[in-house]
Write a structure and sequence with these properties.
The complex is a heterodimer. By secondary structure, chain A is α/β, with parallel strands linked by helices. Chain A is 37% helix and 27% strand. The longest helix of chain A is centred in the N-terminal third of the chain and has 11 residues. Chain A is globular and about 40 Å long. In chain A, 55% of the residues are buried. By secondary structure, chain B is α/β, with parallel strands linked by helices. Chain B contains six helices and 13 strands. In chain B, helix 1 links the parallel strand 1 and strand 2. The longest helix of chain B has 13 residues. The chains are: A alpha/beta, B alpha/beta.
Chain lengths: 252, 196
């Protein structure tokens, strides 16, 4: 049976792992390659390396980092942050990344999703969406690391991205990110049921029950977290044992 | 141990190279026919699209070379599919080492396509799986699969039961990615290197 995945996200700035609270107040949590290897050994299912400075500071590829990661890590990993072109994707894949996350550039020019999927296959194209629920109750897409609002709803964009050939959706709720108060169950379930590709839920995981809820009520295919793992507030193995006990298909 | 990895226009060759290096063997990545023929082991990796990959192999005569290899050969993911007779992916005639057709998952309204993630493998009938527990988890990423048949060497289940691995004579194929399947994948690659 296909397992529900637990993914650790390593936000990268200047070659170091960092994690902000609501995208602010960045703290240092170590060397990304070392931390990634630690998680792989601890039983994490997948890793995501996001260069959080890339879009704002127009920094290009993470190719060198991808290559260092690929040399030591024996599980799948995704690289993202400022990926804007076919060439960006090609270089990252050639340097050992398994999947590439695209965010703002794909929203601004959706046809690049189709171009990337045709060139490299849907399986390696992850469309990352930062979304925020506003006072009208709607979930809107935000760009450039959550700094630029749009009037497009999250579900509409997720469905368009999927129809263009995205292989997965990485959905981050800005309302929940960094709060440790639980994942955004409603929008995760709406997107997961509204597209035919896997959805990775991100933002808000603080307790083991939160992960159980996002897999059950949220219908997520995978759940991603960062700081609770980096600061050892939750052990990967203990979390996976808990979820297995709750009847979820989990790789131990 | 002289391990050759087939160089062609498919992804993840670097990941396979690194996985073999982690086992203490330095592989050569090559499309040179002589180098492939004289290697002790040949790995035929692949992430990508079937018809583009086949066209590339044919242009370089690698299609006939691969079929005739006599040492242990391991096809991974698309590499395994290309060793079958035919792929529905863009109506592609493949190498016909395994007498299997590769077909697309059909939507069942519940499971997502492609399959992405860790799934269990079982019913082993190949030395590739020596010393592995039943229901070991491996990492899969694919939208097409090879059905169960006489060459099936391990099974898995997603939407329906199908071949997680194929084995015929000196040819082995795995649908999952051993290079991304943590300790289980390392054991499978080691078993491939250890074939006598």
């Amino acid at each position: 049976m296909l397992a529900k995945r637990i993914i650790a996200c390593l936000d990268i700035k200047n070659g170091r792992t960092v994690k902000g609270v609501n995208f602010e107040n960045i703290r240092d949590a170590g060397d990304p390659v070392e931390l990634g290897a630690f998680y792989a050994a601890a039983g994490i299912d997948e890793l995501v390396f996001l260069d959080i400075t890339a879009t704002n500071e127009k920094r290009k590829t993470l190719a060198d980092l991808a290559k260092k990661i690929a040399a030591v890590i024996n599980i799948p990993f995704t690289v993202g942050g400022g990926v804007a072109s076919i060439e960006d994707v090609r270089i990252l894949l050639q340097n050992g990344a398994d999947k590439i996350a695209v965010n703002s550039a794909a929203f601004k020019n959706p046809t690049i999703i189709a171009d990337m999927a045709r060139e490299f296959g849907s399986q390696c194209i992850v469309v990352a969406i930062d979304t925020k629920q506003e006072s009208d109750g709607q979930w809107y897409v935000y760009l450039n690391g959550g700094t630029v609002p749009t009037r497009t709803t999250c579900l509409a964009w997720a469905q368009e991205a999927a129809s263009l050939g995205a292989g997965e959706i990485l959905l981050t709720s800005m309302n929940h990110d960094g709060t440790k108060a639980g994942f955004a169950l409603d929008i995760t379930a709406a997107v997961s049921k509204g597209v035919s590709i896997p959805v990775i839920a991100s933002g808000g995981g603080g307790t083991m029950e939160h992960f159980e809820a996002v897999f059950k009520a949220g219908s997520a295919d995978a759940a991603l977290a960062a700081s609770i793992f980096h600061f050892k507030e939750m052990e990967v193995h203990a979390l996976k044992s808990f979820l297995l006990d709750k009847g979820l298909p989990i790789r131990l | 141990m002289n391990v050759a990895i087939v160089k062609y226009n498919a992804g993840n060759i670097l990941s396979v190279t690194y996985a073999i290096e982690r086992l203490g063997v330095s592989p050569v990545v090559t499309d040179n026919i002589e180098e492939l023929q004289k290697a002790d082991r040949v790995i035929f990796p692949g992430v990508g699209e079937a018809s583009t990959a086949m066209a590339y192999l044919k242009e370089r005569n690698l299609d006939t070379v691969i079929k005739k290899l006599e040492q242990p050969v391991l096809g991974i993911c698309l590499g395994m599919q290309l060793l079958c007779s035919y792929s529905e992916e863009n109506d592609t005639t493949c190498l016909s080492v395994f007498d299997e057709r590769v077909v697309s998952f059909l939507p069942n309204g519940a499971d997502k396509i492609p399959q992405v993630g860790w799934n269990t493998i079982s019913d082993y009938s190949s030395n590739l799986f020596n010393d592995l527990p039943e229901n070991a988890y491996c990492y899969f990423v694919h939208g097409y699969y090879a059905a169960l048949g006489p060459d099936t060497a391990a099974t898995t289940n997603y939407i329906l039961p199908y071949s997680a691995a194929l084995h015929k004579n000196n040819f082995y194929g795995v649908q999952f990615h051993p290079e991304k399947s943590a300790a289980v994948g390392e054991k499978i690659l080691q078993n491939f290197l250890d074939i006598v």
